[in-house]
Structures are given as C-alpha cells and as structure tokens.
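Reading a protein record of the kind used here takes only a little practice. Each token is a code from a learned vocabulary of local backbone shapes. With that in mind, consider the following protein and its fold in token form:
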Amino acid sequence: MAQGRKYLAVEIEESMAYLFTLHRVKVRGHDRVIVESDCLTLVSKLRKREIPNNFLGIFFIYDILKLCSMFNFISFANAKRERGIRSLMLWLISNLIFITRDYGWRRY
C-alpha cells in the first residue's frame, strides 16, 4: 500500500507542475501547446480525459482539463526521462530569464 501512495505522490507532483506551467504558458499568450512528460500514467489519463475518483483526479486532473479547454490546441506526449530532464533544464533557464523580465532583476 505504501508503494501505491508513493506512486500517487509522483503523479500529484507532476500534476502540480502541469498546472503551474499551463497557467504560465496561457498568461504568456500561447494557444497551441504540446506537453511532454515522462509520467506515462498521468499522460494516459490526460489523453483519455479520465478523471479518477480520488485526490489526484478531483484536485488536479479536473483542473488541468479545465485549463486545457482554454487552449486552441493541446497535446500530451510521453517523453523519455533523459529528454524530460533536458526539457526541464531548458524550461528553468527560460523561466529565470522570464522572472528577471517580470520583476526587473538584472542578470550578471
């Protein structure tokens, strides 16, 4: 049972990242998005628009799907872990630049 909770925790963390990122992408004015993740179970639920009757479904997947309706096009793709790490690093770098632009901080 503990392993099941740990697995669900991974999906919850991944879902939180989806919500944050999709919100930021929408705020930036993008309407066509491809979301890549190495969490195959979450990607499949989102592709099927399946909302499980548990904490993950009620509090995260429902909100993600609701946010998805605001985009003209959105696709969920499964990525290999190595590619996911590379994408995360690129996102972090671009987000740092974005944060500095938002708050007027300087890069040194």
Remarks:
- The helical segments are 2-27, 40-48, 55-68, 81-103.
- The longest helix spans residues 2-27.
- The mean pLDDT is 77.
